[in-house]
Amino acid sequence: STCISLSAARVCAQEIRTLEQTNMALQKKLNKLQVEHVSEEEVDQLFYALEQKELQLKQANAEKDELEAEVLTARQLTARGVNMEPKYIEVHHNALSDGDDSDDDDEKK
Protein backbone atom coordinates (compact mmCIF):
# COMPACT_ATOMS: atom_id res chain seq x y z
CA SER A 1 0.00 0.00 0.00
CA THR A 2 3.00 2.29 0.29
CA CYS A 3 3.56 1.90 -3.39
CA ILE A 4 1.56 4.36 -5.50
CA SER A 5 1.28 4.52 -9.22
CA LEU A 6 3.12 7.11 -11.24
CA SER A 7 -0.14 8.62 -12.48
CA ALA A 8 -1.43 8.96 -8.92
CA ALA A 9 1.81 10.72 -7.98
CA ARG A 10 1.35 13.15 -10.87
CA VAL A 11 -2.22 13.84 -9.73
CA CYS A 12 -0.98 14.46 -6.18
CA ALA A 13 1.79 16.74 -7.44
CA GLN A 14 -0.72 18.69 -9.54
CA GLU A 15 -3.07 18.98 -6.55
CA ILE A 16 -0.18 20.20 -4.41
CA ARG A 17 0.75 22.85 -7.02
CA THR A 18 -2.90 23.94 -7.22
CA LEU A 19 -3.13 24.14 -3.43
CA GLU A 20 0.15 26.08 -3.30
CA GLN A 21 -1.15 28.56 -5.91
CA THR A 22 -4.42 28.91 -4.01
CA ASN A 23 -2.47 29.40 -0.79
CA MET A 24 -0.25 32.01 -2.48
CA ALA A 25 -3.31 33.85 -3.83
CA LEU A 26 -4.90 33.82 -0.36
CA GLN A 27 -1.65 35.06 1.19
CA LYS A 28 -1.52 37.93 -1.33
CA LYS A 29 -5.15 38.78 -0.51
CA LEU A 30 -4.35 38.74 3.19
CA ASN A 31 -1.31 40.98 2.68
CA LYS A 32 -3.39 43.37 0.59
CA LEU A 33 -6.07 43.53 3.28
CA GLN A 34 -3.44 44.18 5.95
CA VAL A 35 -1.92 46.96 3.83
CA GLU A 36 -5.35 48.46 3.21
CA HIS A 37 -6.08 48.35 6.93
CA VAL A 38 -2.85 50.17 7.75
CA SER A 39 -3.56 52.64 4.97
CA GLU A 40 -7.02 53.32 6.38
CA GLU A 41 -5.48 54.05 9.78
CA GLU A 42 -2.94 56.35 8.17
CA VAL A 43 -5.68 58.09 6.19
CA ASP A 44 -7.71 58.52 9.38
CA GLN A 45 -4.67 60.00 11.13
CA LEU A 46 -4.01 62.32 8.20
CA PHE A 47 -7.64 63.46 8.12
CA TYR A 48 -7.51 64.13 11.86
CA ALA A 49 -4.29 66.11 11.46
CA LEU A 50 -5.86 68.00 8.55
CA GLU A 51 -8.93 68.84 10.66
CA GLN A 52 -6.67 70.12 13.44
CA LYS A 53 -4.71 72.28 10.98
CA GLU A 54 -7.96 73.62 9.52
CA LEU A 55 -9.11 74.58 13.03
CA GLN A 56 -5.77 76.30 13.68
CA LEU A 57 -6.06 78.11 10.36
CA LYS A 58 -9.62 79.19 11.16
CA GLN A 59 -8.49 80.54 14.56
CA ALA A 60 -5.50 82.29 13.00
CA ASN A 61 -7.73 83.88 10.35
CA ALA A 62 -10.18 85.03 13.04
CA GLU A 63 -7.31 86.60 15.02
CA LYS A 64 -5.98 88.20 11.82
CA ASP A 65 -9.42 89.63 11.01
CA GLU A 66 -9.71 90.96 14.56
CA LEU A 67 -6.29 92.61 14.37
CA GLU A 68 -7.05 94.06 10.93
CA ALA A 69 -10.31 95.49 12.32
CA GLU A 70 -8.38 97.06 15.22
CA VAL A 71 -5.87 98.59 12.80
CA LEU A 72 -8.67 99.92 10.61
CA THR A 73 -10.44 101.42 13.63
CA ALA A 74 -7.19 103.01 14.82
CA ARG A 75 -6.59 104.48 11.35
CA GLN A 76 -10.14 105.83 11.20
CA LEU A 77 -9.81 107.39 14.65
CA THR A 78 -6.45 108.91 13.72
CA ALA A 79 -7.91 110.30 10.49
CA ARG A 80 -10.74 111.90 12.49
CA GLY A 81 -8.32 113.33 15.03
CA VAL A 82 -9.81 111.43 17.97
CA ASN A 83 -6.60 109.58 18.66
CA MET A 84 -4.33 112.55 18.04
CA GLU A 85 -4.56 114.21 21.46
CA PRO A 86 -1.79 112.24 23.19
CA LYS A 87 0.52 112.65 20.21
CA TYR A 88 0.10 116.38 19.78
CA ILE A 89 -0.19 117.54 23.36
CA GLU A 90 3.41 116.59 23.95
CA VAL A 91 4.75 118.23 20.79
CA HIS A 92 2.30 121.13 20.59
CA HIS A 93 3.95 124.44 19.69
CA ASN A 94 1.45 126.78 21.36
CA ALA A 95 3.72 127.36 24.35
CA LEU A 96 6.58 128.43 22.08
CA SER A 97 4.28 130.43 19.83
CA ASP A 98 2.73 132.21 22.81
CA GLY A 99 6.16 133.02 24.14
CA ASP A 100 7.22 134.41 20.76
CA ASP A 101 3.99 136.38 20.45
CA SER A 102 4.41 137.91 23.90
CA ASP A 103 7.99 138.90 23.07
CA ASP A 104 6.77 140.48 19.85
CA ASP A 105 4.02 142.27 21.77
CA ASP A 106 6.55 143.58 24.29
CA GLU A 107 8.80 144.87 21.53
CA LYS A 108 5.87 146.61 19.81
CA LYS A 109 4.86 148.40 23.01
From TrEMBL:
Chain segments annotated as coiled-coil in the UniProt record: 16-77
Keywords linked to the UniProt accession: Coiled coil
Coiled coil as UniProt keyword: yes
Protein name: Uncharacterized protein
Naturally occurring in which organism (per UniProt): Haptolina ericina
